[in-house]
Amino acid sequence: MNTILKLLLTAVAVVILAKLLPGVTVDGYLSAIIVAVVLALLRLIVKPILVILTLPITIVTLGLFLLIINAIIIFIADSFVDGFAVSGWFIAIIFSLLLSLFQSILYSFLDKK
């Protein structure tokens, strides 16, 4: 149940960010839910592989290369979901940062009982 709520909150964050950022578009709420599911799966499967493969670069940049990995994850989600589009690298990085911020704020409401 908690996972479903987190996916729905991520979809809400995607819709809000699509309205705030000029280079991000989402066709509707169903597309936002699909984006949330795809992002969760990509973060679960692809991100650890990318982190291991780029570990030397990540160490040299003191972890800042993880922003590029997050942007790559956003672009992969862009290619998988038809109703979701990100216009460039800078927008993908900003989208990733703001999505993480919104998720941490929204998820903090779930932990309180």
UniProtKB/TrEMBL annotation:
Keyword terms, alphabetized: Membrane, Transmembrane, Transmembrane helix
InterPro entries named in the record: Phage_holin_4_2
Membrane-crossing segments per the record: 28-46, 53-77, 89-110
Keyword Membrane listed: yes
Regions annotated as coiled coil: none
UniProt-listed PANTHER family: SLR0284 PROTEIN
Protein's name in the database: Phage holin family protein
Organism: Gangjinia marincola
Phylogenetic placement of the source organism: Bacteria, Pseudomonadati, Bacteroidota, Flavobacteriia, Flavobacteriales
